């Protein structure tokens, strides 16, 4: 077949557009403030300045990082477990129960999360959880459930029914079938969901904004935002903060990429 | 019904994926499935309904009796979802008939909040901006995503590498992206002076028109990768035989794209458009960090107006009424796009890997 010149040129141009801002962040974070004002913005500086990173680390970055990690773990682990168990129910229970169950969670896909912030704020206050990390986990779990259940139950449907029947013959309980058969067979989907929801939690901005107040409860995106306010003129330091806040999630992506991309296209690509 | 051997194949496929093999092996399995699909095309020229029928017959064996354990397994998720997602959804409607400043007592005030929402000019302004946002993002992102997705669907190794890199913007938080572009667009220390392109030297965030160009470009930068991946997956599922047949008939690449690729992407287009349209309804982080609704109120779209009204203006009742409008708009748009496509795409989001 002839080469696809138009597609190719377009593809490489898009790559350039994707990489340019990332490159800019990288080189700027390594410039001292005087170099930043004096040099060409798109060229890297010969003298690498790590002072920006030191400044970010000294500005409580470690605490924000810990907050983000805690919230992500506290959201993703219960979320994946609950979504897995509910998916088992949707796939294995009789239709009278599983169909409405599935519909309820599918409905959740259409709820714009933003629209519920006032009642969630009220709920969290009434639970005496305002300004705590736990307050960020609860709505994160609830709104992560629909998509997670969709992906996991679709994957679980591909487990051959004979395997369940074989375990029935062996006298296994539903609990055993769930953990010894369904769990290992759906592990790729569980990893997909886990990585994706960790990403969502990590980058979440709205819930931290409305449900927390004190600086020591900030997660990274919120910290980044207030950081930008404080260091408005010192762009290299702000860029260093952007780099540091993104590194953990890029590492996670590198580890779970195969599952993440495969699962997302499988879940939405039809 | 699927034959037992076919089921075995599927189990084996899962095992392979699970045991963490490399991409190439997974792809060889994939192409095996493709051959399988090709056969079905020859048989029935209509691959998708055939697949759907096969799926339903392969689904859970109809258990007659509801088992208690199944109910118990679903309870934690159901409980959580009911309390922290469904209850707020009902709550927002209830709160829209009240007055609440966010701290004190909540008082029932009937239609007062609604009266204010419907007569405020910011509501209609915000609504118009949301509609503009939805249309502009769709028009900008859909053609680009389809083109990039079709390009990435090629099996060349470098295209897999490109797909990895394309994904990067999806990893970054909106706050990080907004901050990055803010400095990138700085007239003196950003791209304009770096590339020596004077036309880039604009007051990007201070002009009511330019700021919209900036927002649309940034949002496209952030979300096109996601839709590109969806289309890439879909294009790879189109049976190769269709293209071979078209080539024999003498159709060129462009003709093939419009006669085979595009029509075959119909359901993917519905899914992608639904996500895009409903997503555009709720852009918040980017705009909040980048402009706070300004300059003036030129980017104060409805979700932002709702946040500012409730959490800055302390009018939670009015904010709730605005939220109800958002929910209705979201559901209406989702249903509208599906109706337009003539199929419930959310129910068809199955398999494909």
From TrEMBL, chain A:
<protein>
    <submittedName>
        <fullName>Carbohydrate ABC transporter permease</fullName>
    </submittedName>
</protein>
<feature type="transmembrane region" description="Helical">
    <location>
        <begin position="133"/>
        <end position="152"/>
    </location>
</feature>
<feature type="domain" description="ABC transmembrane type-1">
    <location>
        <begin position="65"/>
        <end position="256"/>
    </location>
</feature>
<dbReference type="Pfam" id="PF00528">
    <property type="entry name" value="BPD_transp_1"/>
</dbReference>
<feature type="transmembrane region" description="Helical">
    <location>
        <begin position="103"/>
        <end position="127"/>
    </location>
</feature>
<keyword id="KW-0812">Transmembrane</keyword>
<feature type="transmembrane region" description="Helical">
    <location>
        <begin position="231"/>
        <end position="255"/>
    </location>
</feature>
<feature type="transmembrane region" description="Helical">
    <location>
        <begin position="189"/>
        <end position="211"/>
    </location>
</feature>
<comment type="similarity">
    <text>Belongs to the binding-protein-dependent transport system permease family.</text>
</comment>
<keyword id="KW-0813">Transport</keyword>
<feature type="transmembrane region" description="Helical">
    <location>
        <begin position="12"/>
        <end position="33"/>
    </location>
</feature>
<feature type="transmembrane region" description="Helical">
    <location>
        <begin position="69"/>
        <end position="91"/>
    </location>
</feature>
<dbReference type="InterPro" id="IPR000515">
    <property type="entry name" value="MetI-like"/>
</dbReference>
<dbReference type="InterPro" id="IPR035906">
    <property type="entry name" value="MetI-like_sf"/>
</dbReference>
<keyword id="KW-1003">Cell membrane</keyword>
<keyword id="KW-1133">Transmembrane helix</keyword>
<keyword id="KW-0472">Membrane</keyword>
From TrEMBL, chain B:
<keyword id="KW-1133">Transmembrane helix</keyword>
<keyword id="KW-0812">Transmembrane</keyword>
<protein>
    <submittedName>
        <fullName>Sugar ABC transporter permease</fullName>
    </submittedName>
</protein>
<dbReference type="InterPro" id="IPR000515">
    <property type="entry name" value="MetI-like"/>
</dbReference>
<feature type="transmembrane region" description="Helical">
    <location>
        <begin position="164"/>
        <end position="184"/>
    </location>
</feature>
<keyword id="KW-0813">Transport</keyword>
<feature type="transmembrane region" description="Helical">
    <location>
        <begin position="267"/>
        <end position="290"/>
    </location>
</feature>
<dbReference type="InterPro" id="IPR051393">
    <property type="entry name" value="ABC_transporter_permease"/>
</dbReference>
<dbReference type="Pfam" id="PF00528">
    <property type="entry name" value="BPD_transp_1"/>
</dbReference>
<feature type="transmembrane region" description="Helical">
    <location>
        <begin position="204"/>
        <end position="224"/>
    </location>
</feature>
<keyword id="KW-0472">Membrane</keyword>
<feature type="transmembrane region" description="Helical">
    <location>
        <begin position="127"/>
        <end position="152"/>
    </location>
</feature>
<comment type="similarity">
    <text>Belongs to the binding-protein-dependent transport system permease family.</text>
</comment>
<feature type="transmembrane region" description="Helical">
    <location>
        <begin position="316"/>
        <end position="337"/>
    </location>
</feature>
<feature type="region of interest" description="Disordered">
    <location>
        <begin position="1"/>
        <end position="61"/>
    </location>
</feature>
<feature type="transmembrane region" description="Helical">
    <location>
        <begin position="71"/>
        <end position="95"/>
    </location>
</feature>
<dbReference type="InterPro" id="IPR035906">
    <property type="entry name" value="MetI-like_sf"/>
</dbReference>
<feature type="compositionally biased region" description="Basic and acidic residues">
    <location>
        <begin position="7"/>
        <end position="61"/>
    </location>
</feature>
<keyword id="KW-1003">Cell membrane</keyword>
<feature type="domain" description="ABC transmembrane type-1">
    <location>
        <begin position="127"/>
        <end position="337"/>
    </location>
</feature>
């Amino acid at each position: 077949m002839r080469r696809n010149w138009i597609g190719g040129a377009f593809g490489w141009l898009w790559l350039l557009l994707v990489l340019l801002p990332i490159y800019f962040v990288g080189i700027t974070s390594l410039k001292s403030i005087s170099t930043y004002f004096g040099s060409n913005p798109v060229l890297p500086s010969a003298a690498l300045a790590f002072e920006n990173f030191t400044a970010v680390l000294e500005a409580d970055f470690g605490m924000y990082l810990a907050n983000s990690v805690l919230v992500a773990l506290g959201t993703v682990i219960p979320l994946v477990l609950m979504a897995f168990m509910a998916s088992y129910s949707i796939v294995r229970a009789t239709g009278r129960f599983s169909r409405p169950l599935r519909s309820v969670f599918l409905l959740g896909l259409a709820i714009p999360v933003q629209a519920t912030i006032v009642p969630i704020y009220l709920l969290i206050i009434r639970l005496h959880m305002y300004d705590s990390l736990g307050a960020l986990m609860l709505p994160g779990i609830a709104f992560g459930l629909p998509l997670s259940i969709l992906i996991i139950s679709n994957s679980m449907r591909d487990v051959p029914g004979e395997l369940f029947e074989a375990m029935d013959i062996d006298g296994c309980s539903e609990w055993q079938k769930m953990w010894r058969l369904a769990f290992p067979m759906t592990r790729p989907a569980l990893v997909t969901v886990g990585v994706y929801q960790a990403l969502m939690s990590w980058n979440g901005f709205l819930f931290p904004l409305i449900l927390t107040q004190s600086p020591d409860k900030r997660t990274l995106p919120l910290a980044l935002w207030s950081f930008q306010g404080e260091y408005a003129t010192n762009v290299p330091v702000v860029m260093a903060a952007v780099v540091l806040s993104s590194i953990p999630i890029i590492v996670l992506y590198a580890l779970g990429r195969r599952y993440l991309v495969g699962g997302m296209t499988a879940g939405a690509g039809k | 019904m699927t034959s037992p051997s076919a089921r075995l194949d599927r189990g084996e496929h899962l095992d392979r994926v699970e045991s963490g093999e490399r991409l190439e092996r997974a792809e060889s399995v994939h192409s095996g499935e493709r051959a399988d699909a090709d056969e079905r095309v020859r048989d029935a020229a209509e691959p998708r309904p055939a697949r759907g029928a096969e799926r339903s017959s392969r689904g859970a064996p109809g258990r007659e009796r509801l088992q208690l354990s199944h109910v118990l397994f679903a309870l934690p998720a159901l409980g959580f979802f009911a309390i922290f997602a469904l209850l707020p959804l009902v709550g927002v409607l209830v709160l829209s008939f009240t007055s609440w400043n966010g701290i004190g007592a909540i008082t029932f005030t009937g239609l007062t909040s609604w009266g204010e929402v419907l007569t405020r000019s910011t509501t209609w302004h915000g609504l118009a901006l949301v509609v503009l946002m939805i249309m502009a993002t769709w028009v900008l992102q859909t053609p680009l995503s389809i083109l990039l997705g079709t390009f990435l669907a090629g099996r060349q190794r470098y295209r897999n590498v490109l797909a990895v890199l394309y994904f990067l913007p999806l990893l970054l938080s909106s706050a990080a992206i907004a901050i990055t572009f803010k400095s990138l667009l700085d007239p003196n220390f950003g791209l304009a002076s770096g590339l020596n392109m004077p036309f880039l030297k604009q007051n990007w965030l201070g002009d009511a028109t330019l700021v919209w160009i900036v927002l649309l470009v940034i949002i496209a930068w952030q979300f096109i990768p996601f839709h590109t991946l969806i289309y890439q997956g879909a294009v790879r599922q189109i049976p190769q035989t269709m293209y071979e047949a078209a080539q024999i008939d003498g159709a060129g690449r462009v003709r093939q794209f419009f006669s085979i690729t595009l029509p075959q992407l119909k359901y993917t287009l519905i899914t992608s458009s639904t996500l895009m349209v409903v997503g555009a309804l709720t852009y918040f982080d980017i705009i909040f960090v980048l402009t706070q609704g300004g300059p003036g109120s030129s980017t104060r779209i409805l979700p932002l107006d709702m946040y500012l009204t409730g959490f800055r203006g302390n009018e939670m009742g009015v904010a709730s009424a605005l939220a109800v409008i958002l929910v209705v708009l979201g559901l209406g748009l989702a249903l509208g796009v599906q109706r337009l496509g003539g199929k419930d795409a959310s129910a068809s989001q199955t398999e494909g890997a």
